[in-house]
Write a structure and sequence with these properties.
Elements (H helix, E strand, L loop, with lengths): L7 E3 L2 E8 L2 E13 L10 E11 L4 E12 L9 E10 L7 E10 L9 E8 L2
Antiparallel strand pairs: 1-3, 2-3, 3-4, 4-5, 5-6, 6-7, 7-8
Length: 127
Amino acid sequence: GETLEAEWEVAPFLNIGYKSGNLELAAWGFLGVPFAQDEDEEIETEVEYNLSALLHVSPRINALLELDGGGGISGDSVGEDVINLSPGIIFRPFANSPFMLGTSVGIPLSTDEQFSTRWTTSLFWHF
């Protein structure tokens, strides 16, 4: 059989957020640095990020806009950057309920794409 080799990566990250009135802004990003590779392997360092804005339109409806992306900063993937824009909505199906339902559609903005369109739906308990 084949031998499986483990790939290891250290990924320092930064998360920040800001809230003012009905607007919430959040950002996170990380830098992935691989280690414990074979001597002849090229090190491929990557960066990924996400920026999001949430506007509380009413007690039950929130508008959402996310920008996410990433790419290589060393190695073979340099120049293969991906950027996506995802508008969406989050709402409470029942008044005063902790359950929330969210949906968004992701649209690639870069010429390098991981998908043509991405539909995301989430059901979560907000506490």
